[in-house]
Amino acid sequence: MRTSKRSNGSSAKSKAVDRPFDAKVLSHARSIVGDYRLVLEPDKELGYIGSAIEMPTVFADAKSPDGCVKATREALAVAVATLLELGRRPPAGRRQRSQQVNIRLTPDERLALEEATSRLGFKGISDYVRAAALGRIGSSTG
Asked: Can you give the pLDDT at residue 58?
């Protein structure tokens, strides 16, 4: 374990943040991520930038499409493993979503949601609303 200095000069042990994930947790995370739908976008400087519809705020980049898929899946696996270690349920993959909920909005509410969706990097209002609502209750049952 790494030690950190406190302002009074004493040292105390703190949990290292750069440690690897437990192999079982990382393996489970990778299996979850295998169901995620990836989106690759060409970029003039980076080659390709990848994200997932299920976790649109996790990104990776690479020069080739294949490299970008690999890097994006690994970034997603780290994010999902982190959620699992924190006792949170990660977003479900595409095969698990079969239920639909419809809501009515005023034009102003829809515009506000569209702006938030775009600003926060989500692909659509439904992804934003799902993430916001399920994040608020600390669950994602797909």
From this structure: 95
